[in-house]
Design a protein that fits this description.
By secondary structure, this protein is mostly helical. Helices cover about 65% and strands about 5% of the residues. It is built from seven helices and four strands; from the N terminus they run αααααααββββ. Helix 2 packs across helix 7 and helix 3 runs antiparallel to helix 6. The two termini are about 35 Å apart.
């Protein structure tokens, strides 16, 4: 029986050792920088038209909203801004020309002066700008400066928005690489956690196997020891007790058979 118990204990130990061996976690897929860069570029090209459409629609809506709010704050702003813009455009188109109403008035005055001097039509040496005491070059430069001032005022008062940029919609290769790296780290963490759980469960199972094997071996060994009993009988005679030699008797663990119930 001791041999059987030893075999059981050894077998349980071997089985527990194999079951309790810790396993290394698997490795998450590696990240390739060029692959991530290529994916980012391909994705941007595929979504380029949709991105541009979204940006254009968003900016138009925002600008219309800003114009509407400016008109509510100052009624007639749109027409005033348009009138000033047209005036600046006229000045830059013909910086050396007099306004039509001023020109007509000067022509009338020149005609009257011609009549007073006996000259037919306008006075022969009449020049609108010179008679006004204005140098033609200076006059043109002045009108150009006035046009720039008008445009600056209109631009400063114009409702402005912070336009959406299409570049903010595109995925850069560095962003794609960072996302892939984060995903790899998450995958590796999941593999590590799963392996740790498996190793823990394997260790528990190995311990259970080892405990069961030891318990079973103990039971087998106990059976062998209980099967042999030592008995020392006493012999009485001649007025004294004589100790007889010790002998062993085997006691069966089987219950006695009642032959009266055997058919």
């Amino acid at each position: 029986m001791p041999i059987v118990a030893a075999v059981i204990i050894a077998g349980g130990a071997i089985a527990a050792s194999k079951m309790g061996q810790a396993k290394a976690p698997g490795q998450a897929a590696t990240v390739n920088i060029q692959d991530e860069q290529r994916r980012a570029i391909d994705g941007n090209l595929a979504n380029g038209s949709k991105i541009e459409q979204l940006v254009n629609t968003s900016n138009i809506f925002s600008q219309n909203q800003a114009n509407s709010l400016a008109e509510q704050a100052m009624p007639g702003y749109t027409k005033l801004a348009q009138s000033l813009t047209n005036q600046a455009q006229t000045m830059t188109n013909d910086p050396y020309g007099l306004p039509a109403d001023v020109q007509d008035n000067l022509t009338r005055i020149a005609g009257e002066r011609g009549i007073n001097t006996g000259v037919r039509g306008q006075a022969g040496d009449f020049s609108a700008l010179r008679d006004l005491g204005v140098n033609e070059l200076q006059y043109g430069q002045s009108r150009i400066s006035q046009a720039q001032s008008i445009l600056s005022s209109v631009s400063a008062s114009a409702p402005r928005i912070n336009p959406m940029s299409a570049t903010s919609m595109y995925l850069t290769p560095s962003q794609a690489l960072q996302t892939a790296t984060n995903n790899q780290s998450a995958d590796q963490a999941a593999l590590n956690a799963r392996t740790a759980t498996d190793n823990y469960n394997a260790a528990l199972n190995a311990q259970a196997v080892s405990t069961s094997a030891n318990a079973f071996a103990g039971a087998v060994g106990g059976m062998g020891g209980a099967a042999t009993a030592t008995k020392t009988p006493a012999y009485t005679g001649m007025g004294s007790t004589i100790n007889q030699p010790t002998y062993a008797s085997t006691t069966s663990y089987l219950k006695p058979v009642d032959y009266s119930k055997v058919p």
